[in-house]
Design goal:
alpha/beta, 6-stranded mixed sheet, 5-stranded antiparallel sheet
């Protein structure tokens, strides 16, 4: 069974239909790229899956558990969906250390202090950030900030990672390195991931499945080949 299943998602802003029946699925250890031009609905679809936007029709399930069903008014809040979200801007708190940024989701879920220290330490080591835990975002490079944002989303062990253009703020060389790193990490950790991009080369390089959106509908779906 796929780790993430998105079925027939419809969403309106006022009278404007933004998503018109989008469906896709992602297996564990796989990356799906939502590709398409600006205004095609990529980020809106990702935010809807995350529970940050409200669809009026469709279903979303994570690890076999329904988190949204428009027909029965089931709509779990974002923090109860078992998803990690990495924003395009990284959304790090400038006045919190790397450790405190990464620990935020665990503290929100009221995890015990010992568990927070263990999980944050673990994920920082995995991402090569262990030596930076006391630094603040302003003291980090763009690539390091990106890794902190990914670490924060991994710390509470989500089944699915959602990434909204996470590489767009990096220069070309860093972007190539980050792309390879992300693909290796998601495969090794056996997560499912959905990445939004408008960069066709990036989608072809990183994804196992490409979901091509145009005007709120999925125009094509398949492997990069």
């Amino acid at each position: 069974m796929p780790e993430l299943v998105v079925e027939n998602i419809h969403l309106k802003y006022g009278a404007v239909e933004v998503l018109k029946g989008a469906s896709f699925a992602v297996e564990k250890g796989q990356i799906a790229a939502l590709l398409g031009p600006s205004g095609s609905g990529k980020t809106t679809l990702l935010r809807t899956v995350a529970g940050l936007e409200r669809a009026y029709q469709g279903r979303v399930s994570v690890s076999g558990k329904e988190v949204f069903d428009g027909s029965s008014n089931l709509d779990l809040p974002a923090e109860k969906r078992g998803l990690g979200f990495v924003f395009q801007s990284y959304a790090l708190w400038p006045n919190r250390s790397v450790f405190d940024n990464v620990a935020y989701g665990l503290k929100l879920r009221k995890a015990p202090d010992a568990e927070i220290r263990r999980k944050v330490g673990q994920v920082l080591e995995v991402l090569g950030l262990g030596h930076l835990h006391e630094r603040y975002p302003s003291q980090l490079s763009g690539g390091q900030q990106q890794r902190v944002a990914i670490a924060r989303s991994l710390a509470y062990d989500p089944a699915v990672l959602l990434l909204d253009e996470p590489l767009s703020n990096l220069d070309a060389k860093l972007r190539d390195e980050a792309r390879a790193f992300l693909k290796e990490l998601i495969t090794r950790e056996e997560r499912a991931a959905v990445i939004v991009t408008h960069d066709q080369i990036e989608a072809l390089a990183i994804a196992d499945t490409i979901v091509l959106l145009n005007g709120g509908v999925i125009a094509q779906e398949g492997s990069p080949e």
